[in-house]
Design brief:
575 residues; alpha+beta; 5 domains; eight-stranded mixed β-sheet
Length: 575
């Protein structure tokens, strides 16, 4: 008997529950008053049981300046689709506005406090971290002026969003969006003069499947109610001072945090783009400026000269020089300068025990990627910290690094914790496809084209064409410059070789099965269950590891607290 399905269903026509990651054929049959049109068949449809997540967090300032914008709340969307699936669109954000006592605000009260409300995409795509910075978070999805505020009796305000590039959440990725309020100049005089925000993520956020614009279901998450944010009038600079201090116009802009001296009242030290280290008195007046010939973007490190009691200042510049200077009252004296050969933007740190100053260099290098390479970096960190033995925890791709670590450094491996190991045929195909797409793009557009693509702001996993070094290119100007000028053919060879090493099997990569069988340490295995974390990979490890502890709980039941408890239980048993 032929069975027809109508409406929403999670079963096939034979009554069996749809299987996650399985491929189906969909056939549309339609009866009309005038007859039956030809059926329409769509093949090769991959079913995913994943439910996307939306949640709200908040770490706004407890006080905000009148006439300025501030973060009111942050919402996040996590796509649980496999990497090749459709993108999502954020189409609406709703929020309830209340006073400090949770009494809903009226429309007129909110208009008196805020001149406009915006939804802004965060430059940091992780929904769980990062604060709102107006200079960085500049993609405005919607801006609602106070004249358009209309609150209902619960203080609810709806901000509809027109879908576009900034609203997209790529499959298997996440995005963060800030709810930003622009305070009116006279907000501190209003009553109430503070705001609290409440958001119910799974109902207040409207998320669409990008191609079809069909609303998608969202997993239920905790309701957010923020602490009260009080608006204040910014205080003027103290009398008798010259704060805020202008160092001399746009050419002397500041890209770093100032450092303070050790004497009281303390002098203030700051670098500028015109190549100076500037010393200011505590009242903001200029003390001296020490020229270095190249922009100073690192934050100064201060110390005290034990023999003279004078401030010592360490800083770096774009020319690649690390400089030590001394505050000699009316002048700054350069004591020494050391060149490392490339732009330096990180700030120095001091180790008194070693009597040394350390600074991060920009000289990342392009080399063949391998699990053993990553494991060697982890061992280097343990050696630096003086740790001889450790629990080695890997999550996702980190499981492969953990296996490589245990294979290379068995004496340093006390136990393994392997959470959602990658593996499976789909994982292998996806990884090889990403590297293949980047190879084609680099071959057609050259390395300058790769650098340009990387600066569009997406990671390798969000945009394979940008390549595995995309994040380093964006973060490090020195690395980007050397990357662009390297030999193209050599680079293409390194990328091809990296793909061959990283994605060389259908099981969990990282170490050969014979090596894994020799890892005589306890190993906790927490299985995944999606195209990138095939359950078969976890079962493979259970088969070949000599001392496996396989946790027979599948992802839908793997609540965060349960996973943490199981990991801690394992740690206590094997410490």
């Amino acid at each position: 008997m032929k069975v027809l399905l109508t409406g929403a269903t999670e079963q096939d026509r034979d009554g069996f529950t749809l299987v996650d990651a399985a491929v189906y054929r969909l056939r549309f049959l339609t009866d009309t008053a005038t007859g039956r049109p030809p059926p329409v068949t769509v093949s090769d449809l991959t079913y995913t049981s994943a439910i996307h997540e939306a949640f709200a967090t908040a770490d706004p300032p407890i006080r905000a300046n009148a006439g300025k914008p501030s973060e009111l709340a942050k919402v996040g969307v996590i796509s649980r689709s496999p990497p090749a699936a459709n993108a999502l669109d954020l189409a609406r954000v709703r929020a309830r506005f209340m006073d400090s006592g949770l009494t809903p605000l009226t429309t007129s009260q909110l208009r008196a406090l805020l001149s406009k409300i915006e939804v802004v995409r965060g430059a940091n795509q992780d929904p769980g971290t990062g604060l709102y910075y107006p200079a960085l978070d500049t993609e405005i999805l919607v801006s609602l002026a106070s004249g358009s505020f209309v609150l209902d009796g619960t203080g609810l305000l709806t901000l509809p969003i027109s879908t576009g590039t900034s609203t997209k959440i790529v499959a298997a990725s996440s995005a963060a969006f800030f709810l930003v309020g622009h305070w009116t100049a006279d907000a501190p005089a209003q009553s109430p003069s503070s705001i609290r925000v409440r958001i119910v993520p799974d109902s207040d956020l409207r998320v669409l499947d990008a191609p079809s614009l069909v609303e998608v279901a969202l997993a239920s998450t905790d309701t957010l109610t923020t602490a009260a944010q009080q608006v204040i009038t910014a205080q003027p600079a103290p009398g008798g001072t010259t704060w805020p201090r202008d160092l001399g116009g746009p050419g002397s802009a500041v890209d770093n945090l100032p450092g303070t001296g050790w004497a009281f009242p303390a002098d203030v030290y700051v670098g500028s783009r015109d190549g100076r280290l500037v010393a200011l008195n505590s009242d903001g007046t200029l003390k001296w400026g020490l020229g270095t010939g190249s922009p100073v973007r690192s934050s100064p490190l201060t110390d005290i000269d034990p023999s003279t009691g004078k401030d010592l200042v360490y800083f770096a510049n774009d020319a690649g020089s690390v400089v030590k200077a001394r505050n000699d009252g009316t002048v700054g004296t350069q004591l020494w300068s050391r060149s490392v050969g490339g732009p330096l933007e990180s700030s120095p740190v001091q180790n008194d025990a070693l009597d040394a100053v350390f600074i991060g260099s920009p000289f990342g290098r392009v080399e063949k990627l391998s699990w053993a390479l990553f494991a060697g970096q982890a061992k280097g960190l343990l050696d630096h910290l003086g740790i001889e033995e450790a629990f080695v925890l890997g999550g996702c791709m980190g499981c492969s690094v953990a296996l490589a670590f245990a294979a290379r450094f068995p004496e340093s491996t006390r136990a393994l914790i392997l959470h959602w190991p990658v593996g499976g045929y789909r994982w292998k195909l996806n990884g090889q496809d990403r590297f293949g797409r980047h190879l084609r793009f680099a071959r057609e557009n050259g390395l300058p084209g790769v650098v340009k693509r990387a600066h569009e702001g997406k990671s390798f996993w969000q945009d394979p064409e940008a390549g595995p070094w995309a994040s380093a290119i964006v973060r490090d100007r020195g690395f980007a410059a050397s990357f662009e000028t390297q030999d193209l053919d050599r680079y293409l060879g390194l990328v091809a070789a990296s793909a061959r090493v990283l994605f060389d099997r259908d099981t969990v990569p990282g170490a050969e099965p014979e090596e894994i069988m020799g890892m005589k340490v306890p190993a906790l295995i927490v299985p995944g269950d999606d195209p990138s974390h095939a359950t078969s990979g976890a079962h493979y490890l259970r088969e070949v590891l000599p001392q496996p502890e396989f946790w027979p709980v599948m992802p839908p039941e793997q609540a965060t607290n349960l996973v943490c408890d199981r990991v801690l239980e394992f740690g206590r048993a094997h410490r």
